Amino acid sequence: MISQVFILSSQGDHLIYKDFRGEAGSDVVNLFYEKVTALTGDQPPVVMRHKDVHFVHVRQGGLYWVATTTADTSPFTIIEFLNRLTALVKDYCGSLSERSVQMNFALIYELLDEVVDYGYIQTTSSDILKNFIQTEAVSSKPFSLFDLSNVGLFGAETQQSKVAPSSAATRPIQSSRDQGGKSEIFVDVIERMLVVIGSNGVLMKADIEGEIKVKCYMPTCSEMRIGLNEEFSIGKSQLRGYGAAVRVDECSFHQAVRLDEFDSLRILRLCPSQGEQTVMQYQLSDDLPSAPPFRLFPTIERDNGGRLLMYMKLRCDLPPKSAGINVSATIPVPKGSVSLSQELSSPDQSAELQPQSRAVVWKIPRFPGGTQLSALFKLEVPGFSSASMLEVGPVSLSFELPKITATGLQIRFLRLSPFQPGPAQRWVRFGMRTFDSDHEVGPGPSEDPVQDCFHWWIHCLLYLSQQDDVCWTESVCCLTS
Amino acid sequence: MPYIGSEDTVRDLRRVLSNPNVQSDQLRYRNTILKVIRAMSQGVDVSGLFSEMVKACATVDIVQKKLVYVFLCSYATLNPELSLLVINTLRKDCQDPNPMVRSLALRNMTNLRLPSLVEYVEQPLTAGLRDRAACVRRVAVLGWAKLHNLQTNSEIDAAVVNELYSLLRDPDPVVMVNCLRALEEILREEGGVAINKPITHHLLNRLKECDIWGQCEVLRILQRYRPQSEDELFNILSLLDVSLISPHPPVMAATLSLFLSLCSGLPAVGLAALERVRGPLLAACGNTSREMQFTALCHIQLLLRSLPGLMGEHYKRFFCGYAEPAYIKQRKIEVLVELVNDDNVAILLDELRGYCTDVNISTAHAAISAIGRIGRSYSDKCLEILTELLGLKQEHITSAVVQTMRDLVWVCPQCSRTVCSAVEGCEAEIQDSQGRHALLWLLGVYGEQVSSVPYTLEVFIDGVRSEASVGVKMELLTATVRLFLCRPAETQDMLGRLLHYCIEEETNMCVSDQALLYYRLLHCGIEETRKVLQCRRSDPSLGVLIGRPAEPINQWSYIFNTLEPLRPGAIETESATIGGSPEHMTFDPKPNNDLSDTLSYSFAPLSLSLSPALSPEEFEDLWLQQQENYVYMEEHVQCPTIFRCSPQSLQAAMQLVNIQTLAFTPPHTLPWRVYLYTNTQNKHSADTCHGTLILGELLYTGEEIQKKSKDEENVGVFTYIFLARRN
């Protein structure tokens, strides 16, 4: 049971406040903000309590989404609800930000009114809600010439119509209905990876979590078929096809997905509802299908002047056509390091010492496959002792890899049946977003702070954010009737 | 320029709202109303516009209607008279051919929260229950719950209740679930909606039609149901098995809750259900939402209390990611400690060592004390890491390491040699009082093993005037007296100075009283002092408790799927007991009602002190102060099933009735004994020193154990021996 729901900006501005049961006053909003800003690091901020009022909140899009409730409520339900609410707001307003919430507050009040009654969740299905929601979304996206460039001279198709900008999928779902907007479907394959590599170069841990998301802008729902690689296999024993198998450990599907063609042909059938939904989730652990995309070769020593010299060589093992973007290496350094001098191998890289997080951050905007970069960092560390070496590392690396998936999962085709009247565009995007490689330059024997003591690992984490420059590519398959 | 929220804004808005030109232009009218709502959600008081907004309510534009209702519902309680004007529009809307308009009007009519409007609302609500559109019925059903809560003391309308019960068979699943919710509220005083066999089976059969929110609600309400036969129970369980491994965490958690409450008499089935949710729970730990990850982690901690081996092979799933927030890291560290076994200890310790230098200080502390807890089983490797961490020479790490070592030595005295050599010379780095407290305790207890202790203590004694913490001063006194007992020649002079300062100049009562106590004790002779101060330097019996015995599920099942496990410190860990000497360490409080009932009965004629419990040390001191008049009492009691309790739960139960445990022998040894102590309440002063002190020994000789196995009877004979002293 939910007593109140409110949305606060990170500065504490009241954006939305809705009281469902009239049990607690509206002063709880300020109370919540005081509590959340007064937090010290070790308190779990998800649940907080003030007398009988329990606050449960999630942070999304830089905003606090808060529900107040009683102690015996299921936290799973409340948190799932708040996440679902953010997804709905994102679907209806196009994107999640302080600005979009502010501009669309009437729409959000309307949504809340339909979703929750007297503190009880009624429905969160966008198929049902679309019949009730009347307010139109105000899109915060400024007018862009790029949209016009898609239309060629005299209506001729240009080359650019094969790709759409990454922002194409961030428009509100309902504007299409009234403005006669495009019927489009976006399919996102996103993988996140975590890899830990030990000091001897041995893979200690590898985890891949992936998902296929569908964002649908089609007002009428028709059946959609997504074909995956035929070699796709689940579990350790099962093997399919003759080529390199695409294997995952576990796999789960959205409830709306029908799997009758999955076992034989690896086809997912579903009738997508408007908005964004995760169609499939899969995990793979302890076994990487390919080598980690980056390798770090660190060397650390002290020079005669007592400075700490860190020589980092970073190699990108991707095929030459691909590239890592927004690569950033974070190297924890001893406490009290004061100044950093650096020699980087190319001018577009940058590095800085961040005293509050006690780390050197080395940024590489674009890193083509098959190349190697190096950097030399010299640090002044007053009172450097051999034990300070313990504090160096682990190095963590984060990056984005557009158009690559670690598991090798591909979308063979994307079909809509029965054939849609009018044009329906289908877009597919792959992202394995960055492994956040964590090369740890770790502690060595205290007598000998020279380089044989490296203990390093890679944490790879793959995200796919909306701001990247990965474009949507149109699905290449043809429609079959 | 007008300020936001000033009178001017409201006046401007009123002028525009009452402008006939604006009123005739739908778009401008709607935009003005939008401005009002925006001001309202920014916290501006726009209640003055109520009458203008009431007028704006009469429109065909649904968007405008919705906006006005948002306003009206927020301010209706401030303007009950003007709200009467709205009710006509609302009642008219209830007749509208569009079901959306009907449901909107009905919902907002009940959301006005005005008792004076109840009489106007009842008729549309009754009609709403029979409306042909499901969305209107949904609203009407909940409307009755709202109405009931507006006038709680009025009688419950039996006709409405019957109608609601019959709507449980409504074709729309949301109407069905709403009926459950409404009945639950209306019949709260009777214990909620009646859950009998037909209703239960009806709900279970329709579970699949509901969305996840409805399923959670139904599963929660079904927890009250008690199946009539075992066959029925197992039928229900097999029906629910699909939901148990649901990919939606809320459904999975609600189903497990229901499983645990249905199977409270069948522990084996409950444990099997825990095994079954392992997959979904681990998946929830990898959810993209951090908050969901955290919730799953907290609940995994609960499950581990009953099935310690549940996640053993999945320990890598609990390694912290670089960018994770501190609250997730700390929970993961707590889980990792539970998962240690011979195979993974090296990898786990390696991982934990990496967290010890975390930028977040509290995460670093959590990692350090986690290593200390693992050290109770694998002391060599852990001490190596802890000693290495001291080499970093960082204030907060050194302090946390010393506290961890203190806790470790208390349990594993065999580590003392390594610890003593490690802590030597680290006093300069420790700035906080808890760290110094721990260091002083170590120096006092193991003073004879470290050559430089007198010099270290001398530095502390010289600085005692500027010492702010009372705890550190008291620990300093104890440590110095203890050192005096083993190294009198080096310590005599500084002990004299310290006692002089504390007795003559110290303003804090606790410190000066303790100094006086030691002074008098030393007068009684060195042997007396030794008896008091050198009796306990460790409690090896605690060591046995590390591999915690699996708790029965019902110890935690009542907080499963509530907010309780998410609260800080809800899952008690010994790592939380930083500060104070280990004698003050308390155990996990776990209520065990049967036990406390028996015991409170036998203590009924006494009223025990409710004031903060005496620590064992304080009790010993008080006990030894008084030598005369005591009562001796011996009693044999037959206690059913008491021997099955773990020492912690016994202790927790005793603490509930204000009895503290002094010491006990390890479990499964015979004779098994527990020493208990308490003091009575004094009616004249709050000072505990003047009550009656009671020391008890609970002896179980074990003879009955053989008898039990023969007779299949769960009875043991306990001997209570009580000693009471009146001050």
Secondary structure topology:
The complex is a heterodimer of chains A (481) and B (727).
Chain A lengths: L1 E8 L4 E6 L8 H10 L9 E4 L2 E8 L2 E7 L5 H19 L4 H6 L1 H11 E2 L2 E2 L4 H4 L15 H5 L13 E2 L10 H5 L3 E15 L5 E14 L6 E6 L3 E3 L11 E3 L1 E4 L8 H4 L1 E4 L4 E11 L8 E9 L5 E9 L6 E10 L7 E5 L5 E5 L4 E10 L3 E8 L16 E7 L8 E7 L6 E9 L39 E3 L7
Parallel strand pairs in A: 9-26, 12-13
Antiparallel strand pairs in A: 1-2, 1-5, 3-4, 4-5, 6-7, 8-27, 9-10, 10-16, 11-15, 11-25, 14-16, 17-18, 18-23, 19-22, 19-24, 20-23, 21-22, 24-26, 26-27
Helix pairs in contact in A: 2-4
Chain B lengths: L6 H11 L2 H5 L1 H16 L8 H7 L5 H14 L4 H14 L5 H13 L6 H12 L4 H17 L7 H9 L6 H14 L10 H9 L6 H10 L8 H15 L4 H14 L4 H10 L1 H8 L4 H17 L19 H13 L6 H11 L5 H15 L3 H12 L4 H17 L4 H8 L9 H13 L7 H10 L7 H17 L1 H17 L4 H16 L1 H8 L6 H4 L49 H10 L13 H10 L4 E11 L6 H10 L3 E5 L7 E8 L12 E9 L2 H9 L3 E12 L1
Antiparallel strand pairs in B: 1-5, 2-3, 3-4, 4-5
Helix pairs in contact in B: 1-3, 3-5, 4-5, 4-6, 5-7, 6-7, 7-8, 7-9, 8-9, 9-11, 11-13, 13-15, 14-15, 17-18, 18-19, 19-21, 20-21, 21-22, 21-23, 22-23, 23-25, 25-27, 26-27, 27-28, 27-29, 27-30, 28-29, 29-30, 32-34
Instruction: Report the end-to-end length of chain A measured between terminal Cα atoms.
Output: 48 Å
- Per the principal axes of the C-alpha atoms, what is the gross shape of chain A? globular
CATH topology (level 3) name of the largest domain in chain A: Immunoglobulin-like
User: Which protein chains are joined by the largest interface, and how many residues does each one contribute?
Assistant: A-B, 88 and 86 residues
Structural class of chain A: mainly beta
The count of β-strands of chain B is: 5
Largest sheet of chain A: 11 strands, mixed
- Report the top-level CATH class of the largest domain in chain A: Mainly Beta
Low-pLDDT segments of chain B: 570-605, 683-689, 704-717
What Rg of chain B, in angstroms, do the CA atoms define? 34 Å
Q: Estimate percent helicity of chain B.
A: 55-70%
The overall pLDDT of chain A, averaged over residues, is 74
Total of DSSP H or I helical runs spanning 4+ residues of chain B: 35
Q: How helical, in percent, are the residues of chain A?
A: 10-25%
Per CATH, the architecture of the largest domain in chain A is: Sandwich
Low-confidence stretches of chain A: 145-161, 176-180, 433-481
- Tell me the β content of chain B: 5-15%
Quaternary structure type: heterodimer
CATH homology superfamily of the largest domain in chain A: Mu homology domain, subdomain B
Instruction: Enumerate how many helices of chain A there are, as a single number.
Output: 8
Q: Radius of gyration of chain A, rounded? A: 25 Å
Domain MHD (chain A): 182-442
InterPro entries (chain A): Adaptor_comp_med_subunit, AP2_Mu_C_sf, AP_mu_sigma_su, Clathrin_mu, Longin-like_dom_sf, MHD
Subcellular location (chain A): Membrane, Coated pit
Organism (chain A): Echeneis naucrates (Live sharksucker)
